[in-house]
Amino acid sequence: DGVAVHRVPGQQSRTVDGPLVYPAAPLSAGPGFTVVQVSGDVANASNLGKAVPHILQGILRVSGVEGVRTIIFNPRGGAPLIHGTGRLATEMATLDRQMLLLMRHEEEAVLNSAEIIQQQLQVSADTALPVEAVMTFALKAAGRLLGVIWLASESPIILSPEQQAVIRSLVNQAAVLIAN
Predict the structure, then answer these.
(1) In percent, how much of the chain has pLDDT > 70?
(2) By Cβ atoms counted within 10 A, which residue in 79, 80, 113, 171 is the most buried?
(3) Angle, nearest 10°, between helix axes 161-179 and 48-63?
(4) Which DSSP string corresponds to the chain?
(5) Rounded to an integer, what distance in angstroms lies between the CA atom of residue 57 and that of residue 55?
(6) Whole-angstrom Cα distance, residue 97 to residue 126?
C-alpha cells in the first residue's frame, strides 16, 4: 500500500502560448467526493475543451502531484488538443511527445526517478528534466489510442490503492468523453 501525499500548492493561472493551463483547486474532500464532483462538472460542460480541465483538476487533487497534462489526438488531423493544470504543467510540455510514444504500447506506466525517465523515454542524460517522477495513462477506446493523461512530480509518486482507483476512474471517464 502506498502513502497518500498531498502537496497541492495554491497558485495563479498562467497564460501560455499553446497549451491551456488552469489553476489547481485545493484538496477539499476525499477521493469519492472528487469523482462525484468531477462527474457532475463534466456532465455540465458544453464541450470537450470545457470538460477536460475538470478531469485534470480532479486528478491533481486526488494525487497531490505538481502537474497533470493531457494530449489528445485531433480527429481532424493537425495539432493535438493539449490541456494542463498544476505548477509544473507548462514545464511538462517538453516531455509530451515522449509520453505519447511510450503509451503507444503501454496502458500505464510509473517512472519514479530521473534515471528511469531518461532511460524509458530515451532522453539524453545531458537533458535537464523538468520533473523527477511521472505516471502516465493511455486514453483508449475500442483499442485505439486517443491520447494520454500524465502526472508529474518533483518526488516519487506514491499513491494509495484508493487514489489509484479514483485516478483510473477519471482516466476512463476522459477516454469515454473523447471517444464520443
Answers:
(1) 74
(2) 171
(3) 170
(4) ----------------SSSEEEPPPPP-S-HHHHHHHHHHHHHH-SSHHHHHHHHHHHHHHHH--SEEEEEE--TTSSSPEEEEESTTTTGGGGGHHHHHHHTTS-SEEEE-SHHHHHHHTT--TTSPPS-SEEEEEEEEETTEEEEEEEEEESS-----HHHHHHHHHHHHHHHHHHH-
(5) 5
(6) 18
Q: What is the pLDDT of residues 34-75, one digit of tens each?
A: 666 666 666 666 577 778 888 999 999 999 999 999 999 987
Write down the residue that cell numbers 494530449 correspond to. Answer: 71
User: pLDDT by residue (tens digit) across 99-141?
Assistant: 999 999 889 999 999 999 999 999 988 888 999 999 999 999 8
What amino acid is encoded at 81 in this protein?
Answer: L
